[in-house]
Amino acid sequence: GATIGILGGGQLGRMLCVAASRLGLRCHVFEPGANPPAADVAHTVTRASYEDAEALRAFAAAVDVVTYEFENIPTSALDVIEEIVTIRPGRTALSTSQDRLTEKDFLTGLGLKTAPYAAISDLASLRSALADLASPGILKTRRFGYDGKGQARILTPDQADAAHADMAGAPALLEGFIEFSAEISVIAARGPDGSVACFDPGENVHEDGILRRTTVPTSLPAALRTDAVLIAARILNALDYVGVLGVELFVTTGGLVVNEIAPRVHNSGHWTQNGCTIDQFEQHIRAVAGWPLGDGQRHADVTMENLIGDDMARLPALAATPGAALHLYGKAETRPGRKMGHVNHVTPLS
Ligand code: ATP
Ligand code: MG
Ligand code: MG
Asked: Which residues participate in ATP binding (predicted)?
């Protein structure tokens, strides 16, 4: 069987390994950090830095294809790997999504709606962008932000100085605040032959910038759900994408607004593990391994709830709850804000 190389050994890498092993494939995980959750289930783990070109070459030579569980892989590491083996999803998807400015330019270039935005280099550019916006905004670092980290809300112009100081000199982007009635996401897949399959959109609730729960089906009209899927397919095709992509959208009175994209399996797609015959992890492995995409039809209503930090105290009760499917990441240490696992509350469609 083939061996899949995975950059990153967090919970997403772990669940990719589990899906690959069900298909008789092996996974070789590359991860600089100690005690990666994926190490329990990977066939091979290389623990080395992304600066270590020798280790990267050995890793690339030992696998048939390379994929990743996070988008912030250093360009230099990708260059070394790509001389030896194919990276899926490809470099365009990575370079587009590593920088919020590049990503927004790409999305608006496709004719899709995003929040109004402006690149911010210093306090003066922030002040003038705020004046242009004439409404509340969110200042975000262009790179490396996740779970709402690297963001500052600006409700009134006098909050500009503090928000700018929060960015600590990092290049930033100001976004206009979107008044949304709901947040949804589409988990979409594309194979090397260009075939596309999307999971049913899920409705997401965030707390403190972190995803709290995802529910399928959404309460949205069918036309909007179709719109969301068509938007995701347009993004996949424009990137000549291979693998699973997460697209986060705001539902507004003016239609759907794209928040951001993630070139990987996505937290808001975890419901598929218990709601579909083929889940997002297997779908991603199938795409990068060149298999046909699987049947992602939904066969249950599901609410996925993240287990964050102290939520783990509820484990005994959850383990005894009918219809609750637990997925734990094997992380030894609980910390506030740390994703420890998730639970899918499942109601089969009759
Ligand atoms: P993720 O962990 O999903 O990668 P992130 O750190 O990249 O998160 P965003 O998705 O940009 O952050 O923002 C986190 C949340 O903040 C969004 O899901 C949404 O609830 C809110 N938010 C972000 N941008 C806007 C906006 N322009 N208008 C209104 N709300 C916003
Ligand atoms: Mg993000
Ligand atoms: Mg997000």
From this structure: 100, 140, 145-151, 175-178, 183, 206, 259-260
Residues with CB under 6 A from ligand 1: 115, 138, 145-149, 175, 177-178, 183, 206, 209, 248, 259-260
Question: What counts of helices (H) and strands (E) characterise the chain?
Answer: 11, 17
Question: CATH number for the domain including 7?
Answer: 3.40.50.20
Q: Is residue 300 part of a domain?
A: yes
263 and 198 housed in the same domain: yes
Output the domain CATH number for residue 275.
3.30.470.20
Asked if residues 52 and 29 have their Cβ atoms less than 8 Å apart, the reply is no
Beta-carbon-side half-sphere exposure of residue 346 (alpha carbons within 13 Å): 19
Ligand 1 centroid – CA 257 distance (Å): 12
48 and 131: one domain?
no
Domain assignment present for 108: no
Q: How far is it between the farthest Cα atoms of the chain?
A: 60
Closest atom, ligand 1, to C-alpha of 177 = 28
Number of domain units in the chain: 3
Task: State ipTM.
Answer: 0.98
Q: Please name the residues in contact with 18: beta carbons below 8 A apart, sequence gap of 6 or more.
A: 41, 281
The ligand whose atoms approach the alpha carbon of 339 most closely is: 1
Question: Are 211 and 341 members of one domain?
Answer: yes
pLDDT by residue for the chain (350 residues), tens digit each? 799 999 999 999 999 999 999 999 999 999 999 999 999 999 999 999 999 999 999 999 999 999 999 999 999 999 999 999 999 999 999 999 999 999 999 999 999 999 999 999 999 999 999 999 988 999 999 999 998 899 999 999 899 999 999 998 899 999 999 999 999 999 999 999 999 999 999 999 999 989 999 999 999 999 999 999 999 999 999 999 999 999 999 999 999 999 999 999 999 999 999 999 999 999 999 999 999 999 999 999 999 999 999 999 999 999 999 999 999 999 999 999 999 999 999 999 98
